[in-house]
Design goal:
This protein is an all-alpha fold. The protein is 63% helix and 0% strand.
């Protein structure tokens, strides 16, 4: 049971963010500071572990709905953060430093506890769970991610056709605009192809991107009506931070890894070799095991608590939060990571 309740640690970023919104001053940086200072330091000290939960231990685990409830709790957490920041920004006088701190910390929350959990729920077979997952994408205006990720990224990962796969030698700051633009464009293409190819009728013939766009516009309008322009701009800026956080994770997850194109024109199947993994403990918890990424690509619908370490998967030398910081300094990232990318894959980029 102790092994199971560790996932309560995923709420530490929200707790730090809420403290920052309430106390303000230097505390506004508590959320981003915990994510990118405290966690990397702890992981450097503790290192990584390769252990996976054995079947005998799994039989003793809490029921699966316990782990699902932990995900559902992120919905009130995310929207409470939106409400708190919107209220504070509309009623209190904030300094420039406080504004930046609140935007960054709330943005980290929207990325880690919003988009990331939305990603987990978006892979579930239950339509209610998928709907809840989409709700978590709204504050970052990233609902198109549900379409492109599930029906684009998982199909084209580690190829030139995937905007979420970073190419060998591609800096994060070149990757950001490419993935942001192409992920959005691809989502429209995927929906148009679905409707045209299946000759859908009725409600299924409605382009999902039109629905998502309407929802996101309604969200923006609601922010303006409830909180005013200043709060709306701060919350949208926080949403952008959340989206960039997600895309930075995408960057480190597949950097330089490619699938060979066969003579038939198709690509080899996705294997453990095509995702960077990390077994650094704290990052695994706050990101709901997203760091065991090869197992996720092998079985996309596998619940986070059941994801396993795979010996054949390439491992990052540091945890995900530390790796994200390194990616923000391209020369250091290239020096550390380029030599780790398999030579046969570099030729495919």
């Amino acid at each position: 049971m102790l092994h199971d309740i560790r996932y309560l640690g995923a709420y530490l970023i929200p707790i730090c963010t809420f403290i920052g919104i309430l106390l303000r001053g230097p505390w506004t940086y508590a959320g981003v500071g915990f994510a990118f200072v405290v966690i990397p330091l702890i992981e450097l000290i503790l290192g990584a572990t390769k252990s996976s939960v054995e079947q005998t231990e799994r039989n003793k685990r809490l029921p699966d709905h316990w782990f699902d409830v932990l995900l559902y709790c992120n919905i009130p957490i995310v929207y409470t953060a939106v409400w708190m920041l919107g209220t504070v920004a509309s009623t209190d006088s904030l300094t420039t430093l406080e504004t930046v701190g609140l935007v960054l910390s709330t943005g980290v929350l929207l990325g880690a506890n919003g988009i990331n959990v939305g990603h987990e729920l978006g892979h579930r077979g239950n339509p209610v769970q998928r709907m809840l997952g989409k709700a978590l994408l709204v504050p970052s205006l990233y609902m198109h991610f549900h379409i492109e990720h599930n029906r684009g990224h998982h199909l084209h990962v580690a190829t030139r056709n995937d905007p979420s796969t970073a190419r060998y030698g591609e800096a994060l700051y070149a990757f950001w605009p490419r993935t942001l633009m192409m992920t959005y464009i691809n989502a429209w293409k995927i929906e148009a192809s679905r409707i045209r190819g299946r000759r859908e009728t009725g409600i299924k013939a409605i382009n999902g991107m039109l629905t998502y766009t309407a929802i996101e516009l309604g969200y923006c309008a609601s922010l303006f009506v409830l909180f005013g322009l200043r709060s709306t701009l701060m919350l949208l800026a926080a949403g952008c931070v959340g989206a960039l956080l997600l895309e930075t994770i995408n960057y480190i997850e597949h950097y330089g890894l490619t699938r060979k194109q066969l003579e038939s024109g198709k690509f080899e199947r996705v294997t453990d070799r095509h995702s960077w993994n990390s077994n650094h403990h704290i990052g695994r918890i706050v990101l709901y095991e997203l760091t065991r990424h090869s197992d996720h690509h092998a079985i996309a619908g596998k619940p986070y608590q059941r994801l396993d370490h795979r010996d054949s998967a390439p491992q990052l030398p540091y945890g995900y939060p530390t790796s994200m910081l390194l990616a923000m300094c391209p020369p250091i990232w290239f020096r550390i990571m380029n030599k780790r990318v398999p030579g046969d894959m570099r030729n495919e980029t």
